[in-house]
Design a protein that fits this description.
single chain, mainly alpha, A middle domain of Talin 1, two-stranded antiparallel sheet, about 0% strand, membrane, transmembrane, Alkaline_pH_Ca-Antiporter, Calcium:proton antiporter
Length: about 350
């Protein structure tokens, strides 16, 4: 027990939380910003470790769901906090953050894991039924919540009317809940790894005890709070760096999204390296789904007291990138297996998103 308490995966989340308490609401100087960055990186690695402990205890697909929902809930809380304190200037914050998360997960995490899986085994093999259902849910949520507001006419601009926002919030929550039931109860086998061929993978190790799993749940939440909070504290330094290289201010949101999604990215890559590509896809698409399905209802409730407009509709360039992502995703998912080419195509789409965020 004493050895466990001294473990870095126990110490680092606590240190990150304490550091966050001291620096929250401040603008750290250069030296403190470096310290925050180191603590942020450590919290990311600790979060991945504890997520894998919990996943091993509860099994798939519950393990992937735990990490995706935990990160998204804290991300949503951060968005609401920024919108409450930021005023009308944050009208597009929810849209930009959710869209960045969708592009990073469905192209970056998914593409990287398919590429790694294909390199290791020749083909990245996964369950087409489960992955297809997840992609269809992501497409529906994105279309109803991010594309439709651009074309509705009740409000001027890419906004929903209160009735439309309420409808989108209820439908998003219901659809996400329906998917979770499908993933964890009715058709759980659709979301389990198709095969495990890596003889070095530690898949037969005994699950951790209930006490250790509960401790990891608590430390996972602490680590994720540290990741999101320290990313927020680090944002002035990021803004200064972005401005120094001449990038648009909107690119800061992309950097923050990349930082927040680091725990899921590392966990997904580790799963792909164990030839468990299905777990990687559960993480990628589950995170995209949770990002929309939990953010829109929360923002709908928060809009009651938020000042200023709430712009959810994507612009033309963003809609083209989303359409390319979804069409390519369907073609990738249908066969139930992918080569390095499919992984590379998704990574190119992520590169296009990042490039156009820098050079719109």
């Amino acid at each position: 027990m004493l050895g466990s308490l001294r473990s870095w995966t126990t110490t680092v989340p606590l240190v990150a939380a304490v550091l966050l308490a001291f620096v929250w609401g401040t603008h750290p100087g250069a030296l403190l910003a470096v310290v925050v960055a180191i603590a942020l990186a450590g919290a990311v690695l600790a979060a991945v470790h504890h997520a894998e402990v919990v996943a091993h205890r509860v099994g798939e697909p519950f393990g992937s769901l735990v990490l995706a929902v935990a990160v998204t809930v804290i991300e949503v809380a951060l968005i609401v906090t920024l919108m409450v304190s930021g005023g009308p200037e944050t009208a597009t914050l929810a849209r930009d953050t959710v869209f960045a998360a969708v592009m990073i997960t469905t192209n970056g995490i998914l593409g990287l894991c398919l590429f790694i899986g294909a390199i290791r085994s020749g083909l990245a093999v996964f369950n087409a039924e489960g992955t297809g259902a997840a992609l269809a849910t992501v497409a529906t949520l994105a279309g109803l919540s991010l594309v439709l507001p651009t074309f509705t006419t009740s409000r001027q601009g890419p906004e929903f009317s209160p009735a439309q926002l309420t409808f989108a919030a209820v439908i998003s929550l219901m659809l996400y809940g329906l998917f979770v039931v499908t993933q964890t109860v009715r058709h759980r086998d659709f979301f389990l790894p198709v095969e495990i061929t890596d003889p070095n993978a530690d898949v037969h190790a005994a699950p951790p005890s209930g006490r250790k799993a509960l401790a990891s749940v608590g430390l996972l939440l602490v680590a994720l709070v540290g990741v999101v909070g320290l990313a927020k504290v680090e944002s002035p330094s990021i803004e200064a760096g972005v401005a120094a290289v001449g990038f648009p201010r909107a690119f800061v949101g992309v950097v923050i999204a990349l930082l927040v999604l680091l725990p899921e990215t590392i966990a997904a890559v580790r799963a792909a390296m164990r030839n468990q590509v299905q777990i990687s896809l559960n993480l990628a698409l589950g995170s995209a789904m949770a990002s929309i399905g939990l953010t829109i209802p929360t923002i709908a409730v928060a809009s009651i007291w938020l000042d200023g407009p709430l712009a959810l509709g994507l612009g033309p360039t963003q809609m083209v990138l989303l359409a390319l992502t979804l069409v390519t995703g369907v073609l990738t998912v249908v066969p139930g297996r992918a080569t390095r080419l499919q992984g590379g195509v998704h990574l190119v789409l992520l590169a296009a998103f990042i490039f156009l965020a820098i050079n719109p």
